[in-house]
């Protein structure tokens, strides 16, 4: 055991006797060799988050749904605050995008299908908006 320690001590002493420039070169090469042995870690793949929307509505169609909703709301209830209209139209548009595959499916609806959609929108969105408002009140 003492021999081994003595050997390490001798190497250390001989390193300190080196010219400072040589010692820096040795340390630099040693660092370079150790740093080159690391693995290159690839960036993890970004997996898109699943969405509840079909993705088959164009931006223009979504804007059109929302526009028709706001105009209809203001025609039927002009005294409704704009913020409330926007909440309902956001919900109506989201509901439509979640439950219908594309704009053609909406255009092919019968009057009975349209009334069913209207009733579902009212039921679903009234409940959702009431829950959202209660959450906001509870946070206060």
Short descriptors:
140 residues, mainly alpha, 2 domains
Describe this entry's structure for a reader.
This protein has 140 residues and is mainly α. It folds into two domains: 2-36, no CATH class; 59-139, no CATH class. It contains six helices and no strands. The radius of gyration is 35 Å and the shape is elongated. The model has no long low-confidence stretch (mean pLDDT 79).
- The whole-number mean of residue pLDDT values reads 79
Return the structural class: mainly alpha
User: What is the total number of structural domains?
Assistant: 2
Unreliable runs, pLDDT <50, ≥5 residues?
none
The coarse overall form would be elongated
Rg, alpha carbons: 35 Å
Question: What fraction of residues sit in β-strands?
Answer: under 5%
The string of secondary-structure elements, in order, is HHHHHH
Q: Which helices and strands occur, and which strands form pairs?
A:
Layout: H1 2-16, H2 20-36, H3 59-76, H4 82-99, H5 103-107, H6 111-139
Helix pairs in contact: 3-4, 4-6
Structure summarized in a few sentences:
With 140 residues, this protein is mostly helical. The protein folds into 2 domains: 2-36, no CATH class; 59-139, no CATH class. The protein has 6 helices and no strands.
């Amino acid at each position: 055991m003492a021999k081994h320690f003595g050997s390490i001590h001798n190497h250390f002493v001989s390193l300190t006797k080196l010219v400072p420039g040589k010692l820096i070169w040795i340390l630099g090469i040693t660092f370079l060799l150790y740093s080159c042995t690391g693995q290159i870690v690839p960036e993890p793949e970004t997996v898109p988050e699943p969405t509840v929307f079909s993705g088959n509505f164009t931006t223009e169609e979504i804007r059109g749904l929302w526009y028709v909703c706001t105009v209809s709301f203001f025609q039927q209830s002009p005294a409704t605050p704009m913020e409330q209209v926007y909440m309902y139209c956001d919900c109506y548009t989201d509901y439509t995008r979640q439950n219908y595959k594309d704009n053609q499916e909406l255009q092919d609806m019968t009057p009975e299908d349209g009334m069913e959609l209207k009733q579902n929108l009212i039921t679903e969105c009234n409940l959702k908006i009431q829950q959202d408002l209660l959450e906001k009140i509870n946070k206060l």
